[in-house]
Structure formats: structure tokens, C-alpha cells
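Let us work through a complete example step by step.
Step 1: write down the sequence.
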Amino acid sequence: MKIVAIQGSPSASSRSGSLLALAQSRLQSRLQSVASRAHQIVVRELPAQALLHAQLDHPLIRQALVEVAQAQLVLIATPIYKAAYSGLLKTFLDLLPQDALRGKTVLPLATGGSIAHLLALDYALKPVLSALGARDILDPVFATDAQIPRHDALGYVPVNEVAERIDLVLRAVIERNETQPILENA
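Step 2: predict the structure and record it as C-alpha cells.
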């Protein structure tokens, strides 16, 4: 199984990054054989000029696009700002080919200041994922800032309720994989 996690936060330390890390660790602990097939794309670490100028031939941009193309499961994490996912994530998604997510399972993860930001997943992010060919979009996991408090030593740590929601979504992926493998060891 090839898993690609796309971190769309412009901040090095972020709540959406901690949500993504939690999902990755939960998934890898349940599917230990895939740990070596996981890759993370931290969009803010891609070369800004190449990203903004859509330089698809830049080696780091090209490698990120190849990682997405080879994935069976794509986790996408973003903060929600002003009723939309991050502009940084949008810039990366714009580089993907039109059917880049066709045949892949996609799990959207998002954080926002309040529950009112939850609608941005349905009205902003999901339509773009669909336009990229995604048909198997899992129920998104959204957490408010209050549900991912800052810990002095550990950074941002999601509360148990958020971890339980991630487990619920991932359980469905794992069960489905057992009956009809989407996550093959290639």
C-alpha cells in the first residue's frame, strides 16, 4: 500500500499537521506492513518559486507529483481560513493533473477556529477533490482549535474525541481493504 500525506499548512507547527500526524500514526500502527510505503509531502517545504510558477519540471515538484500518482490512499490536511482551505494547498492541488486522484481513496483532514469552518470541507475542498477525479472521498475529520490544544512539550495534541473520529474513519478503510484490497503491497 502506498500512502501519501499532503500537509497544506503554511506553519511549521500547526494543528492540521498534528491531525495529519495522528492519522498517519494510527494507520501505520494498524497496517504495519505499509510503514515503508508512506510518504509525506509538506507543501510549504517545496520551492516557492517553482510551486507558484507551476514549474512541473522542477525535481522536487516532479517528485511530489509522482508520489501522488503512485498512491492508493491520500491523506490531505489543511487549516481552514476564511471559509476555505489554505492557499498553499490550493497552489499544490492546481499542479496535479486533472484525474490525479481517480482510483484513489482520499481522507480530508481539517482544522479551524470554530465549527462554522466545517462547511468549507463540503463547499470548498470536496469539489476540488472531485474535479481531480476523486470518487472515494472518506468522511472528513474536522477539529476546532479548542480540540487540538497546545501542549508545552509535545506541541499540538488532539483530544481523545478527535482521535476516536480518526480511528472510526480509518477502521472503515482497513475493513474495506481486508475485503477488497485498495491498499496493496506493491
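Step 3: interpret the result. The mean pLDDT is 91.
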